Amino acid sequence: MQYQSQAVAKLYFIGAIALFIGQILFGLILGLQYVVGDFLFPEIPFNVARMVHTNLLIVWLLMGFMGAAYYLVPEESGRELFSPFLAKLMFWVFLIAGALTVVGYLAVPYATLAEMTGNGLLPTMGREFLEQPTITKIGIVVVALAFIYNVGMTVLTGRKTVVNIVLMTGLVGLAVLFLFSFYNPDNLVLDKYYWWWVVHLWVEGVWELIMASILAFVLIKTTGVDREVIEKWLYVIIAMALITGIIGTGHHYYWIGTPGYWLWLGSVFSALEPLPFFVMVLFAFNVINRRKREHPNKATVLWAMGTAVMAFLGAGVWGFMHTLAPVNYYTHGTQLTAAHGHMAFYGAYAMVVMTIISYAVPIMRGQQAKSNGKQVMEMWSFWLMTVSMVFITLFLTGAGILQTYLQRYTDAPQAFMVVQEKVSLFYWMREVSGVVFLVGVILFALSFLPDRKEQEA
Amino acid sequence: MQEVFTKSMARNIYYGGSMFFVLLFLVLTFDTMQTLPERDNRQNITAQVADGKRLWEENNCIGCHTLLGEGAYFAPELGNVYQRFGQNKEAIKAFIKSRPAEGVAGRRSMPQFNFTEEQLDNIVEFLKYSSEIDTNNWPPNIQG
Predict the structure, then answer these.
(1) pTM reported for the whole predicted model
(2) With CB atoms counted within 10 Å of each terminal CB, which end of chain B scores lower, N or C?
Protein backbone atom coordinates (compact mmCIF):
# COMPACT_ATOMS: atom_id res chain seq x y z
CA MET A 1 0.00 0.00 0.00
CA GLN A 2 1.51 3.31 -1.08
CA TYR A 3 -0.44 5.58 1.25
CA GLN A 4 -1.37 5.03 4.89
CA SER A 5 -4.81 6.54 4.48
CA GLN A 6 -5.85 3.95 1.90
CA ALA A 7 -6.38 1.67 4.90
CA VAL A 8 -9.79 3.26 5.63
CA ALA A 9 -11.08 1.25 2.68
CA LYS A 10 -10.74 -1.92 4.73
CA LEU A 11 -13.53 -0.86 7.07
CA TYR A 12 -15.83 -0.32 4.11
CA PHE A 13 -14.90 -3.66 2.56
CA ILE A 14 -15.60 -5.57 5.77
CA GLY A 15 -18.91 -3.76 6.13
CA ALA A 16 -19.79 -4.50 2.51
CA ILE A 17 -19.14 -8.24 2.79
CA ALA A 18 -21.06 -8.52 6.06
CA LEU A 19 -24.10 -6.80 4.53
CA PHE A 20 -23.74 -8.94 1.39
CA ILE A 21 -24.11 -12.07 3.53
CA GLY A 22 -27.19 -10.52 5.13
CA GLN A 23 -28.61 -9.72 1.71
CA ILE A 24 -28.26 -13.34 0.58
CA LEU A 25 -29.86 -14.69 3.78
CA PHE A 26 -32.91 -12.54 3.13
CA GLY A 27 -32.83 -13.62 -0.50
CA LEU A 28 -33.17 -17.21 0.66
CA ILE A 29 -36.13 -16.27 2.87
CA LEU A 30 -37.79 -14.62 -0.14
CA GLY A 31 -37.08 -17.55 -2.41
CA LEU A 32 -38.67 -19.91 0.09
CA GLN A 33 -41.70 -17.65 0.49
CA TYR A 34 -42.30 -18.05 -3.24
CA VAL A 35 -42.99 -21.73 -2.70
CA VAL A 36 -43.95 -21.96 0.97
CA GLY A 37 -46.22 -18.94 0.99
CA ASP A 38 -46.72 -18.71 4.76
CA PHE A 39 -43.03 -19.08 5.70
CA LEU A 40 -42.40 -16.63 8.57
CA PHE A 41 -45.83 -15.05 8.02
CA PRO A 42 -46.97 -12.74 9.55
CA GLU A 43 -43.71 -11.99 11.41
CA ILE A 44 -41.63 -11.27 8.31
CA PRO A 45 -44.03 -10.81 5.41
CA PHE A 46 -42.63 -10.94 1.89
CA ASN A 47 -42.58 -7.19 1.39
CA VAL A 48 -40.44 -6.69 4.50
CA ALA A 49 -37.95 -9.38 3.54
CA ARG A 50 -37.77 -7.91 0.05
CA MET A 51 -37.08 -4.41 1.32
CA VAL A 52 -34.26 -5.78 3.44
CA HIS A 53 -32.91 -7.81 0.50
CA THR A 54 -32.86 -4.92 -1.96
CA ASN A 55 -31.85 -2.19 0.50
CA LEU A 56 -28.94 -4.24 1.79
CA LEU A 57 -27.87 -4.72 -1.81
CA ILE A 58 -27.87 -0.99 -2.46
CA VAL A 59 -26.07 -0.19 0.78
CA TRP A 60 -23.39 -2.85 0.45
CA LEU A 61 -22.68 -1.85 -3.14
CA LEU A 62 -22.44 1.81 -2.15
CA MET A 63 -20.11 0.82 0.68
CA GLY A 64 -18.05 -1.17 -1.79
CA PHE A 65 -17.90 1.79 -4.18
CA MET A 66 -16.86 4.10 -1.35
CA GLY A 67 -14.23 1.64 -0.17
CA ALA A 68 -12.96 1.36 -3.73
CA ALA A 69 -12.77 5.15 -4.00
CA TYR A 70 -10.95 5.50 -0.69
CA TYR A 71 -8.48 2.89 -1.85
CA LEU A 72 -7.81 4.00 -5.40
CA VAL A 73 -8.19 7.78 -5.24
CA PRO A 74 -5.16 8.43 -3.00
CA GLU A 75 -3.04 6.15 -5.14
CA GLU A 76 -4.20 7.73 -8.39
CA SER A 77 -3.90 11.24 -6.96
CA GLY A 78 -0.46 10.58 -5.58
CA ARG A 79 -1.27 11.90 -2.13
CA GLU A 80 -2.83 10.88 1.17
CA LEU A 81 -6.60 10.99 1.52
CA PHE A 82 -7.82 14.47 2.43
CA SER A 83 -9.37 13.36 5.74
CA PRO A 84 -9.12 9.74 6.89
CA PHE A 85 -10.98 10.72 10.06
CA LEU A 86 -14.01 11.95 8.11
CA ALA A 87 -13.96 8.73 6.08
CA LYS A 88 -14.03 6.58 9.21
CA LEU A 89 -16.68 8.72 10.87
CA MET A 90 -18.91 8.51 7.80
CA PHE A 91 -18.53 4.75 7.71
CA TRP A 92 -20.00 4.45 11.18
CA VAL A 93 -22.74 6.97 10.45
CA PHE A 94 -23.67 5.05 7.31
CA LEU A 95 -23.54 1.65 8.99
CA ILE A 96 -25.56 2.70 12.03
CA ALA A 97 -28.15 4.55 9.95
CA GLY A 98 -28.43 1.54 7.67
CA ALA A 99 -28.71 -0.89 10.57
CA LEU A 100 -31.38 1.22 12.30
CA THR A 101 -33.36 1.36 9.07
CA VAL A 102 -33.25 -2.42 8.67
CA VAL A 103 -34.22 -2.88 12.33
CA GLY A 104 -37.09 -0.49 11.69
CA TYR A 105 -38.28 -2.56 8.71
CA LEU A 106 -38.17 -5.75 10.77
CA ALA A 107 -39.40 -4.49 14.14
CA VAL A 108 -42.47 -2.43 13.33
CA PRO A 109 -45.07 -2.44 10.55
CA TYR A 110 -43.98 -0.22 7.68
CA ALA A 111 -46.89 2.17 8.24
CA THR A 112 -45.78 2.65 11.86
CA LEU A 113 -42.22 3.30 10.71
CA ALA A 114 -43.53 5.86 8.23
CA GLU A 115 -45.50 7.58 10.97
CA MET A 116 -42.62 7.52 13.46
CA THR A 117 -40.23 9.09 10.97
CA GLY A 118 -42.60 11.80 9.82
CA ASN A 119 -43.38 10.58 6.32
CA GLY A 120 -46.50 12.75 6.42
CA LEU A 121 -44.36 15.90 6.45
CA LEU A 122 -42.29 14.98 3.41
CA PRO A 123 -43.60 11.77 1.86
CA THR A 124 -40.83 9.87 0.11
CA MET A 125 -41.36 6.30 1.33
CA GLY A 126 -43.00 3.20 -0.09
CA ARG A 127 -41.60 3.27 -3.58
CA GLU A 128 -39.57 0.35 -4.85
CA PHE A 129 -35.90 0.63 -3.81
CA LEU A 130 -36.62 4.01 -2.20
CA GLU A 131 -38.34 2.56 0.86
CA GLN A 132 -35.93 4.28 3.27
CA PRO A 133 -37.56 6.64 5.76
CA THR A 134 -37.07 10.29 4.81
CA ILE A 135 -34.58 10.81 7.64
CA THR A 136 -32.48 7.93 6.33
CA LYS A 137 -32.58 9.50 2.88
CA ILE A 138 -31.32 12.75 4.36
CA GLY A 139 -28.62 10.75 6.16
CA ILE A 140 -27.59 9.19 2.85
CA VAL A 141 -27.27 12.66 1.34
CA VAL A 142 -25.09 13.83 4.25
CA VAL A 143 -22.83 10.77 4.01
CA ALA A 144 -22.60 11.15 0.23
CA LEU A 145 -21.71 14.84 0.45
CA ALA A 146 -19.04 14.25 3.10
CA PHE A 147 -17.67 11.41 1.00
CA ILE A 148 -17.58 13.44 -2.21
CA TYR A 149 -15.99 16.37 -0.37
CA ASN A 150 -13.31 14.08 1.03
CA VAL A 151 -12.55 12.30 -2.21
CA GLY A 152 -12.98 15.48 -4.24
CA MET A 153 -10.45 17.43 -2.18
CA THR A 154 -8.01 14.58 -2.62
CA VAL A 155 -8.40 14.62 -6.39
CA LEU A 156 -8.36 18.42 -6.67
CA THR A 157 -5.10 18.82 -4.79
CA GLY A 158 -3.51 15.77 -6.35
CA ARG A 159 -2.81 14.23 -9.73
CA LYS A 160 -5.86 14.13 -11.97
CA THR A 161 -5.92 10.87 -13.87
CA VAL A 162 -8.67 9.70 -16.17
CA VAL A 163 -9.61 6.97 -13.70
CA ASN A 164 -9.96 9.60 -10.98
CA ILE A 165 -12.02 11.97 -13.08
CA VAL A 166 -14.39 9.31 -14.39
CA LEU A 167 -14.89 7.93 -10.90
CA MET A 168 -15.61 11.42 -9.56
CA THR A 169 -18.10 12.15 -12.34
CA GLY A 170 -19.87 8.90 -11.52
CA LEU A 171 -19.97 9.65 -7.80
CA VAL A 172 -21.22 13.20 -8.24
CA GLY A 173 -23.88 11.96 -10.67
CA LEU A 174 -24.93 9.36 -8.14
CA ALA A 175 -25.42 11.98 -5.44
CA VAL A 176 -27.20 14.50 -7.66
CA LEU A 177 -29.62 11.97 -9.12
CA PHE A 178 -30.46 10.65 -5.65
CA LEU A 179 -32.05 14.02 -4.92
CA PHE A 180 -34.97 12.96 -7.13
CA SER A 181 -35.87 10.44 -4.44
CA PHE A 182 -37.25 13.38 -2.47
CA TYR A 183 -39.75 14.24 -5.21
CA ASN A 184 -42.93 12.26 -4.81
CA PRO A 185 -45.95 13.93 -6.44
CA ASP A 186 -49.53 12.65 -6.11
CA ASN A 187 -49.56 12.13 -9.87
CA LEU A 188 -48.50 8.51 -10.31
CA VAL A 189 -47.11 9.07 -13.81
CA LEU A 190 -44.90 11.96 -12.71
CA ASP A 191 -43.85 9.96 -9.65
CA LYS A 192 -42.76 7.03 -11.80
CA TYR A 193 -41.20 9.24 -14.48
CA TYR A 194 -38.75 10.86 -12.04
CA TRP A 195 -38.37 7.76 -9.88
CA TRP A 196 -36.54 6.28 -12.85
CA TRP A 197 -34.14 9.22 -12.82
CA VAL A 198 -32.76 7.72 -9.66
CA VAL A 199 -33.16 4.04 -10.45
CA HIS A 200 -32.33 3.76 -14.13
CA LEU A 201 -29.86 6.61 -14.37
CA TRP A 202 -27.99 5.12 -11.42
CA VAL A 203 -27.91 1.55 -12.57
CA GLU A 204 -27.58 2.11 -16.30
CA GLY A 205 -25.74 5.42 -16.09
CA VAL A 206 -23.49 6.72 -13.38
CA TRP A 207 -22.86 3.36 -11.70
CA GLU A 208 -21.42 2.15 -14.99
CA LEU A 209 -18.87 4.97 -14.83
CA ILE A 210 -17.92 3.89 -11.31
CA MET A 211 -17.73 0.25 -12.33
CA ALA A 212 -15.64 0.91 -15.44
CA SER A 213 -13.17 3.11 -13.58
CA ILE A 214 -12.69 0.56 -10.79
CA LEU A 215 -12.14 -2.15 -13.39
CA ALA A 216 -9.69 0.06 -15.30
CA PHE A 217 -7.74 0.73 -12.12
CA VAL A 218 -7.43 -2.96 -11.27
CA LEU A 219 -6.40 -3.80 -14.83
CA ILE A 220 -3.72 -1.09 -14.85
CA LYS A 221 -2.33 -2.53 -11.63
CA THR A 222 -2.50 -6.21 -12.44
CA THR A 223 -1.47 -6.25 -16.10
CA GLY A 224 1.15 -3.51 -16.29
CA VAL A 225 -0.37 -2.44 -19.62
CA ASP A 226 0.24 1.19 -20.51
CA ARG A 227 -2.14 3.57 -18.76
CA GLU A 228 -2.73 5.47 -22.02
CA VAL A 229 -4.16 2.36 -23.67
CA ILE A 230 -6.45 1.56 -20.77
CA GLU A 231 -7.67 5.15 -20.46
CA LYS A 232 -8.66 5.21 -24.10
CA TRP A 233 -10.74 2.07 -23.60
CA LEU A 234 -12.26 3.59 -20.49
CA TYR A 235 -13.42 6.66 -22.41
CA VAL A 236 -14.93 4.54 -25.17
CA ILE A 237 -16.80 2.32 -22.71
CA ILE A 238 -18.28 5.10 -20.64
CA ALA A 239 -19.11 7.17 -23.72
CA MET A 240 -21.14 4.26 -25.09
CA ALA A 241 -22.69 3.62 -21.69
CA LEU A 242 -24.05 7.16 -21.49
CA ILE A 243 -24.91 7.54 -25.17
CA THR A 244 -27.08 4.40 -25.05
CA GLY A 245 -28.13 4.54 -21.42
CA ILE A 246 -29.55 8.04 -21.09
CA ILE A 247 -32.22 7.74 -23.80
CA GLY A 248 -32.37 4.04 -22.91
CA THR A 249 -34.36 5.22 -19.89
CA GLY A 250 -37.17 5.14 -22.44
CA HIS A 251 -37.56 1.38 -22.03
CA HIS A 252 -39.12 2.16 -18.65
CA TYR A 253 -41.51 4.68 -20.15
CA TYR A 254 -43.46 2.25 -22.30
CA TRP A 255 -46.44 1.55 -20.03
CA ILE A 256 -46.55 4.21 -17.32
CA GLY A 257 -48.60 6.81 -19.16
CA THR A 258 -45.94 8.59 -21.22
CA PRO A 259 -46.29 9.37 -24.95
CA GLY A 260 -45.94 6.66 -27.60
CA TYR A 261 -42.64 7.91 -29.04
CA TRP A 262 -40.89 6.43 -26.03
CA LEU A 263 -41.74 3.00 -27.44
CA TRP A 264 -39.45 3.73 -30.38
CA LEU A 265 -36.76 5.67 -28.58
CA GLY A 266 -36.61 3.22 -25.72
CA SER A 267 -36.43 0.23 -28.04
CA VAL A 268 -33.71 1.63 -30.29
CA PHE A 269 -31.42 2.93 -27.57
CA SER A 270 -31.82 0.07 -25.19
CA ALA A 271 -31.11 -2.35 -28.02
CA LEU A 272 -27.73 -0.60 -28.14
CA GLU A 273 -27.19 -0.87 -24.39
CA PRO A 274 -25.33 -4.20 -24.58
CA LEU A 275 -22.60 -2.48 -26.64
CA PRO A 276 -20.62 -0.89 -23.80
CA PHE A 277 -20.68 -4.22 -22.00
CA PHE A 278 -19.50 -6.02 -25.09
CA VAL A 279 -16.65 -3.54 -25.45
CA MET A 280 -15.84 -4.12 -21.79
CA VAL A 281 -15.40 -7.84 -22.49
CA LEU A 282 -13.09 -7.05 -25.41
CA PHE A 283 -11.24 -4.58 -23.21
CA ALA A 284 -10.67 -6.94 -20.28
CA PHE A 285 -9.52 -9.84 -22.44
CA ASN A 286 -7.42 -7.66 -24.72
CA VAL A 287 -5.63 -5.99 -21.84
CA ILE A 288 -5.08 -9.24 -19.97
CA ASN A 289 -3.69 -10.89 -23.12
CA ARG A 290 -1.29 -8.02 -23.61
CA ARG A 291 -0.20 -8.06 -19.96
CA LYS A 292 3.41 -7.12 -19.32
CA ARG A 293 3.72 -9.10 -16.12
CA GLU A 294 2.19 -12.02 -14.27
CA HIS A 295 0.49 -10.60 -11.25
CA PRO A 296 0.68 -13.02 -8.34
CA ASN A 297 -2.97 -12.35 -7.45
CA LYS A 298 -4.61 -14.72 -9.92
CA ALA A 299 -7.94 -14.55 -8.12
CA THR A 300 -8.22 -10.83 -8.86
CA VAL A 301 -7.59 -11.34 -12.55
CA LEU A 302 -10.30 -14.00 -12.56
CA TRP A 303 -12.75 -11.59 -10.91
CA ALA A 304 -11.88 -8.86 -13.39
CA MET A 305 -12.53 -11.09 -16.40
CA GLY A 306 -15.63 -12.52 -14.73
CA THR A 307 -17.04 -9.04 -14.13
CA ALA A 308 -16.78 -8.15 -17.80
CA VAL A 309 -18.32 -11.42 -19.00
CA MET A 310 -21.13 -11.61 -16.46
CA ALA A 311 -22.00 -7.93 -16.82
CA PHE A 312 -22.30 -8.49 -20.56
CA LEU A 313 -24.52 -11.54 -20.09
CA GLY A 314 -26.66 -10.14 -17.29
CA ALA A 315 -26.98 -6.49 -18.19
CA GLY A 316 -26.40 -6.88 -21.92
CA VAL A 317 -27.91 -10.14 -23.16
CA TRP A 318 -30.62 -10.65 -20.54
CA GLY A 319 -31.50 -6.98 -20.71
CA PHE A 320 -31.76 -7.09 -24.49
CA MET A 321 -33.92 -10.20 -24.34
CA HIS A 322 -37.01 -8.30 -23.29
CA THR A 323 -36.19 -4.69 -23.89
CA LEU A 324 -37.89 -4.22 -27.27
CA ALA A 325 -41.35 -2.76 -26.77
CA PRO A 326 -43.32 -5.50 -28.59
CA VAL A 327 -41.61 -8.15 -26.45
CA ASN A 328 -41.73 -6.11 -23.28
CA TYR A 329 -45.46 -5.66 -23.73
CA TYR A 330 -45.82 -9.31 -22.71
CA THR A 331 -42.85 -9.72 -20.38
CA HIS A 332 -42.96 -6.47 -18.38
CA GLY A 333 -42.93 -7.09 -14.64
CA THR A 334 -42.66 -10.88 -14.89
CA GLN A 335 -40.00 -13.22 -13.57
CA LEU A 336 -37.95 -12.33 -16.65
CA THR A 337 -37.36 -8.94 -15.06
CA ALA A 338 -36.20 -10.71 -11.92
CA ALA A 339 -33.89 -12.97 -13.93
CA HIS A 340 -32.30 -9.99 -15.69
CA GLY A 341 -32.04 -8.00 -12.45
CA HIS A 342 -30.27 -10.78 -10.59
CA MET A 343 -27.59 -11.49 -13.15
CA ALA A 344 -27.06 -7.84 -14.07
CA PHE A 345 -26.53 -6.70 -10.50
CA TYR A 346 -24.29 -9.61 -9.70
CA GLY A 347 -22.27 -9.37 -12.89
CA ALA A 348 -21.82 -5.65 -13.11
CA TYR A 349 -21.78 -4.40 -9.56
CA ALA A 350 -21.36 -7.18 -7.01
CA MET A 351 -18.48 -8.65 -8.99
CA VAL A 352 -16.65 -5.37 -9.52
CA VAL A 353 -16.74 -4.75 -5.78
CA MET A 354 -15.37 -8.22 -5.17
CA THR A 355 -12.70 -7.52 -7.78
CA ILE A 356 -11.39 -4.49 -5.92
CA ILE A 357 -11.67 -6.24 -2.54
CA SER A 358 -9.76 -9.20 -3.94
CA TYR A 359 -7.05 -6.88 -5.23
CA ALA A 360 -6.77 -4.42 -2.37
CA VAL A 361 -7.15 -6.44 0.82
CA PRO A 362 -3.94 -8.52 0.48
CA ILE A 363 -2.01 -5.33 -0.34
CA MET A 364 -3.36 -3.67 2.78
CA ARG A 365 -1.85 -6.57 4.66
CA GLY A 366 1.53 -5.93 3.08
CA GLN A 367 1.42 -8.77 0.55
CA GLN A 368 1.01 -8.73 -3.23
CA ALA A 369 -1.41 -11.61 -3.01
CA LYS A 370 -2.78 -14.14 -0.61
CA SER A 371 -1.27 -17.57 -0.12
CA ASN A 372 -1.94 -20.07 -2.85
CA GLY A 373 -4.36 -22.03 -0.67
CA LYS A 374 -6.45 -18.95 0.10
CA GLN A 375 -6.47 -17.96 -3.55
CA VAL A 376 -7.75 -21.38 -4.50
CA MET A 377 -10.48 -20.95 -1.91
CA GLU A 378 -11.34 -17.55 -3.34
CA MET A 379 -11.51 -18.96 -6.85
CA TRP A 380 -13.87 -21.65 -5.58
CA SER A 381 -16.04 -18.89 -4.18
CA PHE A 382 -15.96 -17.20 -7.60
CA TRP A 383 -17.15 -20.31 -9.40
CA LEU A 384 -19.76 -21.26 -6.81
CA MET A 385 -21.30 -17.82 -6.87
CA THR A 386 -21.05 -17.30 -10.60
CA VAL A 387 -22.33 -20.71 -11.67
CA SER A 388 -25.18 -20.65 -9.17
CA MET A 389 -26.10 -17.16 -10.37
CA VAL A 390 -26.23 -18.49 -13.93
CA PHE A 391 -28.63 -21.18 -12.73
CA ILE A 392 -30.72 -18.73 -10.71
CA THR A 393 -31.03 -16.65 -13.85
CA LEU A 394 -31.90 -19.63 -16.05
CA PHE A 395 -34.54 -20.91 -13.64
CA LEU A 396 -36.13 -17.49 -13.27
CA THR A 397 -36.05 -17.16 -17.06
CA GLY A 398 -37.87 -20.46 -17.36
CA ALA A 399 -40.43 -19.31 -14.83
CA GLY A 400 -40.74 -15.99 -16.64
CA ILE A 401 -41.30 -17.47 -20.09
CA LEU A 402 -43.96 -19.84 -18.80
CA GLN A 403 -45.58 -17.07 -16.78
CA THR A 404 -45.64 -14.76 -19.79
CA TYR A 405 -47.22 -17.44 -21.93
CA LEU A 406 -49.84 -18.68 -19.48
CA GLN A 407 -50.85 -15.34 -18.05
CA ARG A 408 -50.42 -12.98 -20.98
CA TYR A 409 -49.93 -14.63 -24.35
CA THR A 410 -52.25 -17.62 -24.63
CA ASP A 411 -55.84 -17.36 -25.85
CA ALA A 412 -57.09 -18.37 -22.40
CA PRO A 413 -55.05 -16.26 -19.97
CA GLN A 414 -54.93 -17.62 -16.44
CA ALA A 415 -54.94 -15.78 -13.15
CA PHE A 416 -51.66 -14.70 -11.57
CA MET A 417 -51.80 -17.06 -8.59
CA VAL A 418 -52.84 -20.03 -10.72
CA VAL A 419 -49.83 -19.47 -12.95
CA GLN A 420 -47.52 -19.00 -9.98
CA GLU A 421 -48.35 -22.48 -8.75
CA LYS A 422 -47.68 -23.97 -12.16
CA VAL A 423 -44.16 -22.59 -12.25
CA SER A 424 -43.26 -23.45 -8.66
CA LEU A 425 -40.77 -26.14 -9.72
CA PHE A 426 -38.57 -23.37 -11.13
CA TYR A 427 -38.78 -21.50 -7.86
CA TRP A 428 -37.64 -24.57 -5.95
CA MET A 429 -34.64 -24.98 -8.24
CA ARG A 430 -33.84 -21.31 -7.88
CA GLU A 431 -33.90 -21.72 -4.10
CA VAL A 432 -31.43 -24.61 -4.25
CA SER A 433 -29.11 -22.51 -6.43
CA GLY A 434 -29.45 -19.74 -3.87
CA VAL A 435 -28.13 -22.01 -1.13
CA VAL A 436 -25.07 -22.81 -3.26
CA PHE A 437 -24.61 -19.08 -3.80
CA LEU A 438 -24.60 -18.52 -0.05
CA VAL A 439 -21.86 -21.12 0.34
CA GLY A 440 -19.87 -19.17 -2.25
CA VAL A 441 -20.27 -15.86 -0.41
CA ILE A 442 -19.19 -17.42 2.88
CA LEU A 443 -16.13 -18.98 1.23
CA PHE A 444 -15.28 -15.57 -0.20
CA ALA A 445 -15.35 -14.01 3.26
CA LEU A 446 -13.37 -16.89 4.78
CA SER A 447 -10.68 -16.63 2.12
CA PHE A 448 -9.70 -13.25 3.58
CA LEU A 449 -9.12 -14.49 7.09
CA PRO A 450 -5.40 -14.47 7.93
CA ASP A 451 -3.53 -17.67 7.13
CA ARG A 452 -2.65 -19.80 10.12
CA LYS A 453 0.70 -20.70 8.57
CA GLU A 454 1.59 -17.07 8.01
CA GLN A 455 0.66 -16.15 11.55
CA GLU A 456 2.94 -18.81 12.92
CA ALA A 457 5.82 -17.81 10.68
CA MET B 1 1.99 1.63 -34.25
CA GLN B 2 0.09 4.43 -35.87
CA GLU B 3 -2.61 5.90 -33.71
CA VAL B 4 -5.70 6.29 -35.86
CA PHE B 5 -8.06 6.58 -32.96
CA THR B 6 -6.47 8.67 -30.21
CA LYS B 7 -7.29 9.10 -26.58
CA SER B 8 -8.36 12.68 -27.09
CA MET B 9 -10.83 11.56 -29.76
CA ALA B 10 -12.24 9.06 -27.30
CA ARG B 11 -12.48 11.76 -24.65
CA ASN B 12 -14.28 14.12 -27.01
CA ILE B 13 -16.79 11.45 -27.91
CA TYR B 14 -17.41 10.93 -24.22
CA TYR B 15 -17.92 14.59 -23.37
CA GLY B 16 -19.66 15.57 -26.58
CA GLY B 17 -21.80 12.46 -26.75
CA SER B 18 -23.01 12.53 -23.19
CA MET B 19 -23.66 16.26 -23.29
CA PHE B 20 -25.73 15.84 -26.45
CA PHE B 21 -27.80 12.99 -25.05
CA VAL B 22 -28.33 14.70 -21.69
CA LEU B 23 -29.73 17.71 -23.56
CA LEU B 24 -31.83 15.52 -25.83
CA PHE B 25 -33.21 13.73 -22.77
CA LEU B 26 -34.13 17.07 -21.20
CA VAL B 27 -35.88 18.19 -24.40
CA LEU B 28 -37.83 14.91 -24.53
CA THR B 29 -38.71 15.29 -20.87
CA PHE B 30 -40.00 18.79 -21.55
CA ASP B 31 -42.11 17.50 -24.43
CA THR B 32 -43.41 14.60 -22.33
CA MET B 33 -44.46 17.00 -19.60
CA GLN B 34 -46.44 18.98 -22.19
CA THR B 35 -48.36 15.94 -23.40
CA LEU B 36 -48.90 14.23 -20.06
CA PRO B 37 -52.11 16.09 -19.13
CA GLU B 38 -53.90 14.26 -21.97
CA ARG B 39 -52.74 10.85 -20.77
CA ASP B 40 -52.09 10.75 -17.06
CA ASN B 41 -55.69 11.16 -15.82
CA ARG B 42 -54.63 14.06 -13.61
CA GLN B 43 -58.10 15.64 -13.70
CA ASN B 44 -59.25 12.78 -11.47
CA ILE B 45 -56.63 13.21 -8.75
CA THR B 46 -58.85 14.15 -5.84
CA ALA B 47 -57.93 14.46 -2.17
CA GLN B 48 -59.20 10.91 -1.80
CA VAL B 49 -56.88 9.63 -4.55
CA ALA B 50 -53.91 11.47 -3.02
CA ASP B 51 -54.65 9.95 0.36
CA GLY B 52 -55.05 6.54 -1.25
CA LYS B 53 -51.62 6.87 -2.87
CA ARG B 54 -50.13 7.74 0.51
CA LEU B 55 -51.76 4.66 2.05
CA TRP B 56 -50.47 2.57 -0.84
CA GLU B 57 -46.97 3.84 -0.07
CA GLU B 58 -47.09 3.74 3.71
CA ASN B 59 -48.12 0.11 3.70
CA ASN B 60 -45.47 -0.83 1.15
CA CYS B 61 -47.95 -2.48 -1.19
CA ILE B 62 -45.29 -2.31 -3.92
CA GLY B 63 -43.23 -4.78 -1.86
CA CYS B 64 -45.47 -7.63 -3.10
CA HIS B 65 -47.58 -6.23 -5.96
CA THR B 66 -46.74 -4.54 -9.21
CA LEU B 67 -48.46 -1.33 -10.27
CA LEU B 68 -48.21 -0.65 -14.02
CA GLY B 69 -45.74 -3.52 -14.06
CA GLU B 70 -43.32 -2.09 -11.52
CA GLY B 71 -42.75 -3.41 -8.04
CA ALA B 72 -42.42 -6.93 -6.72
CA TYR B 73 -43.59 -9.99 -8.61
CA PHE B 74 -45.01 -11.87 -5.63
CA ALA B 75 -48.63 -10.77 -5.91
CA PRO B 76 -50.93 -9.74 -8.78
CA GLU B 77 -50.68 -6.59 -10.88
CA LEU B 78 -52.99 -3.88 -9.52
CA GLY B 79 -52.93 -1.35 -12.35
CA ASN B 80 -56.05 -3.01 -13.76
CA VAL B 81 -57.46 -4.59 -10.60
CA TYR B 82 -60.43 -2.21 -10.78
CA GLN B 83 -61.42 -3.71 -14.13
CA ARG B 84 -60.56 -7.24 -13.00
CA PHE B 85 -63.01 -6.86 -10.13
CA GLY B 86 -65.71 -5.76 -12.58
CA GLN B 87 -65.35 -2.08 -11.61
CA ASN B 88 -66.87 -3.06 -8.31
CA LYS B 89 -65.44 -0.91 -5.54
CA GLU B 90 -67.19 -2.86 -2.83
CA ALA B 91 -65.65 -6.12 -4.06
CA ILE B 92 -62.12 -4.70 -3.78
CA LYS B 93 -62.84 -3.39 -0.29
CA ALA B 94 -64.32 -6.72 0.75
CA PHE B 95 -61.23 -8.54 -0.50
CA ILE B 96 -58.84 -6.33 1.47
CA LYS B 97 -60.99 -6.59 4.59
CA SER B 98 -61.28 -10.36 4.46
CA ARG B 99 -57.55 -11.20 4.69
CA PRO B 100 -56.91 -13.58 7.62
CA ALA B 101 -54.46 -12.06 10.12
CA GLU B 102 -52.53 -15.30 10.50
CA GLY B 103 -52.39 -16.03 6.79
CA VAL B 104 -53.46 -19.19 4.99
CA ALA B 105 -51.52 -22.37 5.75
CA GLY B 106 -48.88 -23.03 3.13
CA ARG B 107 -50.05 -20.27 0.81
CA ARG B 108 -49.07 -16.71 0.02
CA SER B 109 -51.45 -14.31 1.64
CA MET B 110 -51.93 -10.62 2.02
CA PRO B 111 -51.55 -9.18 5.53
CA GLN B 112 -54.58 -7.83 7.38
CA PHE B 113 -54.05 -4.07 7.51
CA ASN B 114 -57.15 -3.17 9.56
CA PHE B 115 -58.01 -0.18 7.38
CA THR B 116 -60.96 2.03 8.27
CA GLU B 117 -63.89 2.35 5.84
CA GLU B 118 -62.62 5.77 4.81
CA GLN B 119 -59.13 4.45 4.13
CA LEU B 120 -60.54 1.58 2.10
CA ASP B 121 -62.55 4.06 0.02
CA ASN B 122 -59.44 6.12 -0.63
CA ILE B 123 -57.35 3.13 -1.65
CA VAL B 124 -60.02 2.04 -4.09
CA GLU B 125 -60.24 5.55 -5.51
CA PHE B 126 -56.48 5.51 -6.01
CA LEU B 127 -56.66 2.15 -7.80
CA LYS B 128 -59.49 3.40 -9.99
CA TYR B 129 -57.51 6.53 -10.90
CA SER B 130 -54.44 4.41 -11.69
CA SER B 131 -56.44 2.12 -13.93
CA GLU B 132 -57.56 5.06 -16.06
CA ILE B 133 -54.09 6.23 -17.03
CA ASP B 134 -53.37 5.84 -20.76
CA THR B 135 -50.71 3.11 -20.63
CA ASN B 136 -50.45 2.26 -24.34
CA ASN B 137 -52.88 -0.59 -23.71
CA TRP B 138 -50.84 -2.37 -21.12
CA PRO B 139 -51.39 -4.93 -19.57
CA PRO B 140 -52.24 -7.24 -22.45
CA ASN B 141 -55.31 -8.73 -20.76
CA ILE B 142 -57.46 -8.62 -17.67
CA GLN B 143 -55.21 -11.01 -15.74
CA GLY B 144 -52.54 -8.30 -15.54
Answers:
(1) 0.97
(2) N
